[in-house]
Amino acid sequence: MIYQRTKDKKQKGFTFIELLVVITIVGILFAAGVVAYGAITVRSRNARRQADLEAIRQSLEMCRSLTGTYIDDTVGIYDSIVCGGNTLMSTTPKDPRDGSTGCQDGSYLYDVTNVANTTYTLTATCTEPAGADSYVVTNP
Asked: What is the pTM of this model?
């Protein structure tokens, strides 16, 4: 005896094609979310680098207002900023990507050039994506 499905009973469940369509849509949405998340984290780390340069610049300007010149020892800026016996920044900011003062290629994140104690240039060299322009803050 052969059993045949009658039209009275409704079929329960999903077909294979319906499941494939849903899985494909979910996969596309997941991939788009991962790409967007990566771009947002890169932009946030770059914004953090800019904010860190601004904080260092404010410490250097405070030093100039206290002593009349900028700090002499630019090597010491990577640990703390001390000017005229006053600690202006107890710990200088670290790179938001790896938490150190160095980039993956070994160059420093914050470079300070001090010419005759009257000018300086702060540069964040570890911008993302690789090869992007560095952030530079200078005083006139």
From this structure: 0.66
Element (H, E) at 82: strand 81-83
Tell me: pLDDT of 56 over 70.
yes
CA distances to 18, 22, 24, 101, 109 from 13, rounded to whole Å, are: 10, 14, 18, 58, 58
| Strands 135-138 vs 119-124: parallel, antiparallel or unpaired | antiparallel
Give me the domains of the chain, ranges plus CATH numbers.
16-138 (3.30.700)
Q: Quick one: tokens of 97?
A: 């990507």
pLDDT digits (tens, 9 = 90+) for 111-135: 566 666 677 777 777 777 766 777 7
Contact present, 86 and 107 (Cβ < 8 Å) = no
In this predicted structure, what is the pLDDT of residue 1?
A: 57
Q: Is 123 helix (H, G, I), strand (E, B) or coil?
A: strand
Distance (Å, rounded) from C-alpha 109 to C-alpha 94? 8
